């Protein structure tokens, strides 16, 4: 599985034994409102996925909890049989309830079921990457992940998972996971305005582990900042473009998975992320989250 060259902004980077484009795609926004139910426009959802791959993106992030199940079903419908270069990352550790909540589901039997369901819905025999999602909708919570992560390690040894990662975690949980088995990435909330993980990103970069920021554009509440708007206006770019370009320049171990349900936004984000920010631009933008 290789993506040796790309014209996408950020180029490529190793993720486990694969090479992926640093500009990836997060599929969560393809489900209905608040990530529940089907998309408003089924054909456009399929078009976004196909366009992402046609434009050269080789890293897609998903979960069976999106919809639930809807996002994985769309990915399979749009892209199966998958191109050899495509790397699909999924995550386990939560279910959905009827009110759209994300109740944790991390007992060994829950995780085994979720891995089996991801395999089945995506239509693959081995999952490229499974992130163990800890914490809750408010963010990471302290506590041991050993039992849950150990179950994923067993599933990896059984040949159902190629790579492991952790998500929505504290730095202590990252360290704990790494005492149990190698991880290829950490997926946490991070963007221009939420920089809690600055030190973690640098520590992971030193150890050649990828960091995959979720909500790179602010998620359900798009990033809003006077400074961001000012820098964007000066550069003749959109605030979204500047936010993505800043992430790509923040550290080489950052892999982007911005979400969108629109082919127009997908193309706009790819073009925008290629913006080159000067040291002065970066210094000004750094004042937002500090
Ligand atoms: N591990 C976890 O716990 C966790 C949690 C949340 C998310 N994730 C992953 O992270 C990925 C990224 O997060 P996200 O999709 O929630 O948030 P995001 O990438 O920060 O933002 C997506 C939002 O920005 C809008 N948007 C995108 N491009 C735009 C543009 N050019 N102009 C205007 N609006 C634009 C989208 O609306 P449109 O659809 O209208 O473009 C969507 O509402 C998800 O897809 C998911 O795979 C993981």
Automatic annotation (TrEMBL):
Identify the CDD domains for this entry.
AKR_AKR13B1
Pfam families cross-referenced by the UniProt entry: Aldo_ket_red
Q: Which residues form the NADP-dependent oxidoreductase domain?
A: 24-288
Source species, domain of life? Bacteria
Q: Which UniProt keywords apply?
A: Oxidoreductase
The keyword Zinc is assigned to this record: no
Protein's UniProt name: Aldo/keto reductase family oxidoreductase
Species name: Nocardia rhamnosiphila
Per the UniProt record, the lineage of the source organism begins with: Bacteria, Bacillati, Actinomycetota, Actinomycetes, Mycobacteriales
């Amino acid at each position: 599985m290789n993506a040796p060259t790309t014209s996408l902004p950020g180029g490529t980077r190793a993720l486990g034994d694969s090479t992926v484009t640093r500009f990836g795609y997060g599929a969560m926004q393809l489900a209905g409102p608040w990530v529940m139910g089907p998309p408003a426009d089924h054909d456009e959802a399929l078009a976004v996925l196909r366009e992402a791959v046609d434009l050269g993106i080789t890293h897609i992030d998903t979960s069976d909890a999106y919809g639930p199940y809807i996002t994985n079903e769309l990915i399979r419908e749009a892209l199966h049989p998958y191109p050899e270069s495509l790397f699909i990352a999924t995550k386990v550790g939560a279910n959905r309830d009827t009110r759209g909540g994300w109740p944790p589901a991390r007992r060994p039997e829950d995780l085994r079921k979720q891995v089996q369901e991801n395999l089945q819905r995506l239509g693959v025999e081995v999952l490229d990457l499974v992130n163990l999602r800890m914490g809750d909708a408010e963010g990471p919570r302290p506590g041991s992940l050993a039992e849950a992560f150990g179950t994923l390690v067993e599933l990896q040894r059984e040949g159902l998972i190629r790579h492991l990662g952790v998500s929505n975690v504290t730095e202590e949980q990252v360290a704990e996971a790494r005492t149990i088995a190698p991880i290829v990435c950490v997926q946490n909330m991070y963007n221009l305005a939420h920089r809690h993980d600055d030190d973690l990103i640098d520590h992971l970069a030193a150890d050649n582990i990828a960091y995959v920021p979720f909500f790179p554009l602010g998620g359900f509440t798009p990033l809003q900042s006077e400074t961001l708007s000012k820098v964007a206006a000066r550069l003749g770019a959109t605030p979204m473009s500047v936010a993505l370009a800043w992430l790509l320049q923040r550290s080489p171990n950052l892999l982007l998975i911005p979400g969108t349900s629109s082919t127009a936004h997908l193309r706009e984000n790819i073009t925008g992320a290629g913006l080159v920010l000067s040291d002065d631009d970066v210094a000004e933008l750094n004042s937002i989250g500090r």
